[in-house]
């Protein structure tokens, strides 16, 4: 007659039965895990979204992070030193421009009026045997160096294409005409590309400059942050090579500085008093507001989040105490039936691991819901739209999962020493608490 052998249930089965036997306590502990994960995820997600919003604003407005200084001589002296104390590192460019008294006096001489700034109405463009004129907007002729790397970065970030259709002038005798200027004349890029043009001051017989049109400054360039307004030199009508003779006849320069970082609202006000203008100065208010919201969020999280985290930790300690009492009584029975202590401790860890698994979907739901609510509140109060990509959301949930498992591990490490010191008899005499 064969001897029948019995096998004890597997650890996962015992763990699930124990969780079910004390469902309410286990549910509460699982919810504490979920709330801890939500607290960490919400703070991380909120800061990620605000940082992302700030980076998006800065990237989509890089052409605005350019300081402009205009004058007939290179900036120097005390004002320049003070400017440099705020802008220590930058990419510096000087640009030749047809401006100043030499140009304005020639316009006034031919057209019999005082001129403060050149306008499209003061110039004529000859294409073939026809002369084109228009009226209205400011008119500036700059050299090709006025197209900055900051302009290209913003155009790429906003999918606006390239600044120039065709290419920039590579030598004297080549010209780039801006599409808005061509539109005022009733022309399009295809009407002038590859053709020779002459630019005149109205009333003069000798052209101011002449050359073959090698490219057109696109409409997208004028949609950039640094070129939206009708401010001086920000909206060029014509680009020439820096060696063009016109610049020698009318010497004038503007200086462009591309800082590595944006200045603050206060620093910009200070710099303005020394003659330097930031093209995207209007954006500093939005950047300042976002930084303020983020700092407020950090302060609130430090105070409120820290208090909540401390409360959750105290709750975990209290629940671990109850959990040890319940588990100790069950452990005495299991030890009496021959279970090894190492296996007993593995059972405890497995139970806590199951509670983590139960907490994960709850933490994911409350995290997403909390983020949506906070996002709506921020949009309503600060007019800031918070956005998180799918990849970032997955990372946040991964952080939440890590927080849940860390909390479970903490519970295990707190409970383990108490259980290791007990004898089998002490396990049986431990009172169970519901």
Describe this structure in words.
There is one protein chain. This protein is of the alpha+beta class. The chain contains 13 helices and twelve strands. The chain has helices spanning 11-21, 23-59, 77-86, 101-111, 149-157, 179-184, 189-192, 245-249, 265-272, 284-336, 341-382, 390-420, 424-428, and strands at residues 67-71, 90-96, 123-127, 130-132, 141-143, 164-166, 174-178, 196-201, 209-217, 238-240, 253-259, 277-278. Strands 3, 4, 5, 6, 7, 8, 9 and 10 form an eight-stranded mixed beta sheet that branches. A four-stranded antiparallel beta sheet has the order 2-11-1-12, covered by helices on one side. A hairpin with a 2-residue loop joins strand 3 and strand 4. Helix 10 (284-336) packs parallel to helix 12 (390-420). The protein is elongated. Residues 1-7 have low confidence and may be disordered.
């Amino acid at each position: 007659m064969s001897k029948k052998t019995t096998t004890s249930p597997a650890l996962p089965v015992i763990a699930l039965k124990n969780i079910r036997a004390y469902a309410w306590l286990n549910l509460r502990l699982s919810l504490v895990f979920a709330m801890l994960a939500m607290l960490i995820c919400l703070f991380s997600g909120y800061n990620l979204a605000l940082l992302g919003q700030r980076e998006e604003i800065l990237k989509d407005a890089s052409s605005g992070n350019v300081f402009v200084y205009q004058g007939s001589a290179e900036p120097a002296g005390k004002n320049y030193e003070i400017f440099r104390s705020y802008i220590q590192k930058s990419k510096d460019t000087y640009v030749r421009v047809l401006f100043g008294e030499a140009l304005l006096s020639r316009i006034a001489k031919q057209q019999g009026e005082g001129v403060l700034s050149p306008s499209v109405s003061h110039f004529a463009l000859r294409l073939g045997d026809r002369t084109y004129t228009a009226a209205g907007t400011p008119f500036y002729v700059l050299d090709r160096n006025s197209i900055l790397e900051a302009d290209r970065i913003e155009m790429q970030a906003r999918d606006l294409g390239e600044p120039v259709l065709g290419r920039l002038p590579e030598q004297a005798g080549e010209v780039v005409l801006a599409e808005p200027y061509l539109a005022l004349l009733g022309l399009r890029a295809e009407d002038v590309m590859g053709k020779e043009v002459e630019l005149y001051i109205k009333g003069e017989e000798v052209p101011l400059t002449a050359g073959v049109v090698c490219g057109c400054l696109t409409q997208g360039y004028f949609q950039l942050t640094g070129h939206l307004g009708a401010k001086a030199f920000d909206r060029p009508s014509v680009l020439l090579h820096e060696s063009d003779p016109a610049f020698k006849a009318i010497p004038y320069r503007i200086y462009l500085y591309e800082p590595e970082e944006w200045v603050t609202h206060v620093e910009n006000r200070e710099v303005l008093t020394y003659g330097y203008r930031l093209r995207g100065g209007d954006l500093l208010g939005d950047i300042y507001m976002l930084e303020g919201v983020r700092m407020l969020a950090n302060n609130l999280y430090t105070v409120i989040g820290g208090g909540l985290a401390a409360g959750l930790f105290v709750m975990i300690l209290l629940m671990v105490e109850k959990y040890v009492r319940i588990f100790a009584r069950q452990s005495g029975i299991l030890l009496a039936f021959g279970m090894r202590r190492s296996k007993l401790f593995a059972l405890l860890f497995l139970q806590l691991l199951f509670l983590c698994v139960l907490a994960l979907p709850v933490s994911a739901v409350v995290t997403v819901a909390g983020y949506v609510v906070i996002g709506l509140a921020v949009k309503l109060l600060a007019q800031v739209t918070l956005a998180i990509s799918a990849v970032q959301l997955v990372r946040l949930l991964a952080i939440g999962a890590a927080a849940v498992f860390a909390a479970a591990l903490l519970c295990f490490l707190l409970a383990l020493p108490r259980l290791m010191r007990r004898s089998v008899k002490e396990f049986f005499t431990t009172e169970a608490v519901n």
